[in-house]
Amino acid sequence: MGSYKQPPYWALKVLQKVCPPDLIEEVEGDLFEAYQWRSQEKGQAYAKRQYIWEVMRCLRYFRIKIKTQNSDIMLIQNYLKTGFRFLWKTKGYSILNILGLALGIAICWMSYIFVSDEYSYDSFYTNADQTYRIKAFMSRGDASKAFAGSSYIMGEEFPAQIPQIEYASRYKSGYFLAKVGQEYINQTTHYADKGFFEMFDVSFLIGTASDFSNPSNIVLSESAALRFNIPLDLSENIVTLVGGGEEISFQVTGIYEDFPTNTSIRPEFLMPFSYWAENNQSRTTIWFDINMNTFFTLAEGTSIETISTKMTEVLLANDDFENTEVAMGLQPLTEIHLDPNLGTGNGINARGDNELIVISMVIGLFCLLIACVNYANFAVGNYLVRIREVSVRKVFGAEKSAVFKQFITEAFISAFISLVLSVALLYLLLPGFSEYANKSYEFSSVFNLNTILGGVVILITATLLAGIYPALLLSRFKTVNGLKGKSKLGGRNYLSRGLVTLQFCIAVFLITGLLTLNKQLDYLLKYDIGYEGENLISVFRPMNDPQIHATFKNELLSISGIESVSIASGFNGTDYVQDDGERVQVRHAKIDEDYISTMGMTLVAGRNFDPEIALDYTKACIVNEAFVKDRGLDNPIGTQINFNYGEFEKPTIIGVVKNFNFQSLHLPVEPLVLYMGGYLNPYDTQIKAADINQELIAAIEDVHREFFSPYPLSYTFAEDDIAAQYELESNIQRITQGGSIIAIVLSCIGLMGFVGTQIRQKLKEVSIRKVIGAESREILTMFLKKYFALLGIGVVIGLAAAFYLLQNWLSNYPQHVSIGAGIIITSVLITLAVAAITIYSQLHRAMGLNPVKYLKEE
Amino acid sequence: MSDYSLGTLEETILIIVLMKEESYGVEIAKVYESHVGQSISLPAIHVVLKRLEKKGLVKSAFGEPTPERGGKRKKFYQGTPIGYKVAKEMQERRSKMWSFVPNPSTNYGLI
């Protein structure tokens, strides 16, 4: 035997699987012999190819095999046939049922697409598992802080001193004006080191990164190259940027494929760090100047702890932190997107929102659950007519498990049709969803393997959820009763009732959630942020020259309609040491005397800066209430603080401004020091106008051009900025709204089916009652009483769950509303009203019926 | 014998089976290739043989297991008398029909 060549094992297995037993011996033998013969005559590769091909040709036997050999599969064919017949017979209900299920599946599927996309971030890089970002911890006394980021020199020295680091790259964003033709556009750029290209599998369409260390070389992504009119053969390869007021030419040495969308790192314009270092000499040697990200790819099997300890050692050998404890650490690349504790920025794309993920998961699962419960309830009601069929099957020898399989198969048919329909629903829903989820999902591109796999999982889940209950119920039904025609299901149908209760529990939960979310958002939007955003325009333009600063301001003020103008710096962070040795962390900004009035802020104590007083430029500051509270100052005015920033030091507090939200509205207001002196570069021009209109903007543009041509005017409206801060909340709100409404509609469909079934079973009872003299109203009350008890339980449980979870969520906000009686009453009323209408729509028939019709049947 | 309608492949395979006392799949494939000049896949032969057997034109029996077949038995096919008759009639009918086709050199050139 050993001298014979063995055909591919898997193909043989396939052959054995598909061939009916009376054929297998002949076919297998013939193929084996032919394999020997062919490998001798035309070589083994040919024989192998031919063998596999012929096995494929044998697949045709499979049908024969299942038809003749497998009674289970034969039965399933029968189940499919009866299933389709029954669906067709009860068209109306089937359509409603399948549409409901399709909606549930579509929502669940969409949330699957979203959630799996969020979790897939950055995991596709070859080195994803061994790649990390530097983070650091600082602690002093009780206060500790973790942040992501590193300094220039860390990215230089750590890889040099720690051999386990295989690739290393710093990463930082930069902003330039880029010249395209005669136009200037704002361009975000990223600095990186050579290791970046290995680390993130950058694949070049042309050129390489081998010359990347040369400060005048850059590489572009394909789409950026297109924008800059750089052809793919690099026959033209000069890009002009404006930096520090002069135009600089860069040479494009390579074009790489665009990064995929599910990554935190998507540079389209990469510059070497040598360029940054040339322009920031002073910052290349400071160890604890955290202003960029650094990524490391570690050798396989290296533990994070070892590297972290080594990094800390290197850092402490070079820098002294007195009594503050500092430790370095590493954050896995794949966690960056969803870790809420460490920030993004500096080239890292905005983080995913865990809240939105949870909400869309909850809504997706709820919608699927409700739809499946609907299906089960419908099915139980509808299957009553099939008890005789089931009984006959049983008499002919079908076991319980066979009946069970039959109804699971039927559930599968419905679920499968629903799945197909849900693809169409996805097509309709996806554009809206992706807008609110800040994604760019395209219908054509979301259907990858993963999505289809998700669809299959949902299909199986839906089949089981929807099918198990009716299947169990019908398979356990007593055969004799079925044949006698006793078509009432045994027991009091507690599970059906329980399921309806559950649906309303979910519905009331979602309504309460939605109302609370609305209330919180309204509250946030109306919340006193400490300044007036109305008719306020922010113009972004750095200006070094104080002379230009003053004349630009005057020119602006001469435009009619402009009330006041202030030019300020951004808000930076620093710390200073008090006389008692305590290190104080504060934010600080350079403003001018018009800042407080332009921004519509209120001074709660002291006075504003006065340009006439020379000391106000060098020795005075205004602090905010948070600062006063943080330092525990009883009498802040006149207190001298040790604050220093460059030459500006030890100012005296001359005023206290009411807290205003200068950072994210989601964060508490931090202690702040404002001053007029110092060397911070002002770049934020705030313009308060009486009214904003096109002419005003055009006038501002004219003045701006006069001073800063060729730079384009870049401005925002403060009101938009504030609204943008709540973008996430309003997106969550819209998604919740959509999801809740669908869930409630689905619940109603379910209730309708449930009540409808019950009433159909009771038409005789109602008829007798009517004959005896009951009025429509009494019949209505009778039924309503019955269902409202169920709803009541559902509502109470739903409210309790909502109350608990929402309190938790609200406590994330520094300022938040309480849930309150109003919301509870409203959501209960909405639920009950919707339920009452649904029930009435079904009862309507029972109330108006002609008793004779149902009584004369027997 | 018009009850038996045979396809071209069926007819060819039937003739190959009739050539010898008994033959099996791989052998038939080899003979087919040498006479027809085209290669043929084994499953195709198997399907045809099954069909012929159903029509009663060939019959089959298992032989002994041999190592060159990976220890599997051969299935030998043998033409039945009806098979022989059907095949023969088809050939005769065809020869007869062919005899009515005129010689190309005399007619075709004149039209």
Briefly characterize the structure.
Chain A is of the alpha+beta class. Chain A has 4 domains: 9-69, no CATH class; 131-335, no CATH class; 354-525 and 727-855, no CATH class; 542-713, no CATH class.
Overall SS class of chain A: alpha+beta
CATH third-level topology of chain B: Arc Repressor Mutant, subunit A
Structural class of chain B: alpha+beta
Overall pLDDT of chain A: 83
**Number of separate strands of chain A:** 23
Outline the low-pLDDT stretches of chain B.
Answer: none
Radius of gyration of chain A: 36 Å
Major sheet details of chain A: 6 strands, mixed, barrel
Quaternary status: heterodimer
User: Tell me, what's the shape of chain B?
Assistant: globular
* Tally of discrete structural domains of chain B: 1
Strand content of chain A: 15-25%
CATH class call of chain B: Mainly Alpha
Strand count, sense and barrel status of the largest sheet of chain B are: 2 strands, antiparallel
The separation of the N and C termini of chain A measures 78 Å
CATH superfamily of chain B: Winged helix-like DNA-binding domain superfamily/Winged helix DNA-binding domain
